[in-house]
Fold this protein.
Amino acid sequence: MTLKHFVNANLKANQEDKYTNAIIELIGKDVHFPETEDIKQMASYLYKSIDQNHTQAFQKLLLFWKFVENNNQQPTEMGLLDEVNYIIILQTNDTNYNYAHQIPAHINNRR
């Protein structure tokens, strides 16, 4: 099941966290959001348009999706964490990232 399908079938934007709600709405309503299970493709689509708070919400949503997809068991592949963090790599390495000023100096490759 793709993340978009998972969001549309199981989640409503009524979570306690406003950033999670915004990501749920964005994924559910964006007709161009990739219908894929490829986390890197989804990250590539989103990374320029979301700030650090929304990025964190996206990462939490990815981990929740994978947890549910794995019959409510914690996924054991460490590669999943690399995939979930791929969006951070894109943001810290792109000189045109809109929210570069929000990236802490110790990980910001542009400073």
User: Anything to note?
Assistant: The mean pLDDT is 87.
